[in-house]
Design goal:
Strand order of the largest sheet: 7-8-3-4-5-6-9
Number of strands: 9
Radius of gyration: 16 Å
CATH architecture of the largest domain: Roll
Structural class: alpha+beta
CATH topology of the largest domain: SH3 type barrels
Strand content: 25-35%
CATH superfamily of the largest domain: PRC-barrel domain
Order of helices and strands: EEHEEEEEEHEH
Length: 141
């Protein structure tokens, strides 16, 4: 699929021509990642990517924030998954992680009504330690 370009509003409301809004085989617009399903290695759906968190300085994706649990949005929790753990599966049209439900239930998370301090490196370190990966700020580009 070729990257489609179209108009997208900037902060002033003006249309910015040529802004990528689709995807290629290798690239995806950040706004399109939200809503993508997340599966475990058995192709069971675990949740949905709600957002991605980017490191402003390096430009790398730090986390995929995945919604998990709850019913019809009630009791839903948000789990920051280190981006390095996700692999895109073309057949599933979603991301795959090597986790199961019990691992996610015990993982660092927060609720919709809880304020998340993304600048708290202790929380980031807890997330990385839990999943056994290097923190995004320690990865070599």
């Amino acid at each position: 699929m070729a990257m489609r370009e179209g108009g997208m509003n900037d902060t002033s409301g003006a249309v910015v021509p040529g802004v990528a809004i689709e995807e290629t085989a290798q690239l995806i617009a950040a706004g399109k990642v939200g809503g993508t399903p997340v599966y475990n290695r058995h192709a069971e759906r675990l949740g949905t990517v709600e957002d991605v968190m980017l490191d402003k300085r390096s430009g790398r994706v730090a986390y995929a924030v995945m919604s998990f649990g709850g019913f019809l949005g009630i009791g839903e929790r948000y789990h920051p998954l280190p981006w390095s753990m996700l692999r895109y599966d073309v057949e599933l049209s979603g991301y795959m992680v090597d986790l199961d439900r019990s691992q996610l239930e015990a993982a660092p998370n927060y609720g919709a009504n809880e304020e998340m301090d993304w600048a708290d490196k202790n929380f980031g370190q807890r997330v990385s330690d839990y999943y056994g990966v290097r923190p995004y700020w320690a990865e070599v580009p």
